[in-house]
């Protein structure tokens, strides 16, 4: 499989008449992908939102798209959900630990339903990073490769929202506490990742296949603090702690042992640069620069 990252794809919809399905459509990323498909002019009748609880997806039905039940843990729902679907966006499950089984169930159903192209949202450098989240993504990528289905893997970096979602806390404390050292994060907004995934989904399959390392402009935690200060006018600094002390802070804040260890491991990966990429693929897929950190902070303040 070739690395397509140097092949800019800036023009949206090629196949408005194909049938598209998006899993996890009730979640943040999936919903943005559904919106993006419609914005590109794909008729709502060709778009299928796959959700665990159709009875709770009234907002999706209101868009005119088809809403189908698809529970990763109930394989019997997956075949009917994928009937007649030509292109599938498989948004990775949030259930860390069960994801390989869940994703494999979707891939089996996709194969049985003759889906023609699958886009899977993975994680940056999935096949070579020590990031604790990576093994399930890498194993899903292997399953995808082994399935024989044509596919593209969107190896997403961190969401900018992982930080902007904590803006009030940072501002109230006047500091960001972590153990990420000078490590930089090529974060991008969910909306940008969703748009990129839809570019892969709607594009010419021959050009889109392969592994796409996606991320925005890299920033360190000190850069994050400085940008928050600049945008909001409130002083925020970054306080870096040794890993052990950071874990103690998390425990002291009431976090259980496993979660504290998990969060500390993510910080260690950040410190090692495992969440950074200099790949231009996201900008290429968007046909513009990804949303800047400052703009994302501004938007989060509205
Ligand atoms: N790059 C990052 O920084 C980052 C951060 C967090 C997560 N992620 C990954 O990216 C994915 C998408 O992010 P997000 O922000 O959109 O997450 P999200 O808002 O939590 O959405 C997760 C979606 O998965 C669905 N889901 C959960 N269990 C399911 C099951 N058994 N069967 C079918 N659907 C199920 C949820 O459905 P319900 O509405 O029914 O719960 C929801 O629609 C996450 O699932 C996770 O794998 C990435």
Beginning-to-end CA distance, first to last residue: 43 Å
CATH superfamily of the domain at 20-158 and 189-215 and 278-287: NAD(P)-binding Rossmann-like Domain
Number of helices: 14
User: In which order are the strands of the major sheet placed?
Assistant: 3-2-1-4-5-6-9
In total, the number of strands is 11
Q: Based on the coordinates given, report the CATH architecture of the domain at 20-158 and 189-215 and 278-287.
A: 3-Layer(aba) Sandwich
Helix and strand content put the structural class at: alpha/beta
Weakly predicted, low-confidence segments: 1-11
Name of the level-1 CATH class of the domain at 20-158 and 189-215 and 278-287: Alpha Beta
**Percentage of helical residues?**
40-55%
N to C succession of SSEs: EHEHEHEHEHEHHEEHHEEHEHHHH
Helix-strand layout with pairing:
Blueprint: E1 20-22, H1 28-39, E2 47-51, H2 58-61, E3 66-69, H3 78-82, E4 87-90, H4 99-112, E5 117-123, H5 134-147, E6 151-156, H6 161-164, H7 167-173, E7 175-178, E8 184-185, H8 190-202, H9 205-208, E9 210-214, E10 219-220, H10 221-232, E11 237-240, H11 243-252, H12 257-271, H13 281-286, H14 293-301
Parallel strand pairs: 1-2, 1-4, 2-3, 4-5, 5-6, 6-9, 7-11
Antiparallel strand pairs: 8-10
Bound molecules: NADP nicotinamide-adenine-dinucleotide phosphate (NAP).
Task: Explain the overall architecture.
The protein has a domain at 20-158 and 189-215 and 278-287: Rossmann fold (3-Layer(aba) Sandwich). The protein is built from 14 helices and 11 strands. It has helices at 28-39, 58-61, 78-82, 99-112, 134-147, 161-164, 167-173, 190-202, 205-208, 221-232, 243-252, 257-271, 281-286, 293-301; strands at residues 20-22, 47-51, 66-69, 87-90, 117-123, 151-156, 175-178, 184-185, 210-214, 219-220, 237-240. Strand 2 (47-51), helix 2 and strand 3 form a beta-alpha-beta unit. NADP nicotinamide-adenine-dinucleotide phosphate is lined by residues 24, 26-30, 52-53, 70-73, 91-95, 121, 156, 158-159, 162, 190. NADP nicotinamide-adenine-dinucleotide phosphate binds next to helix 1.
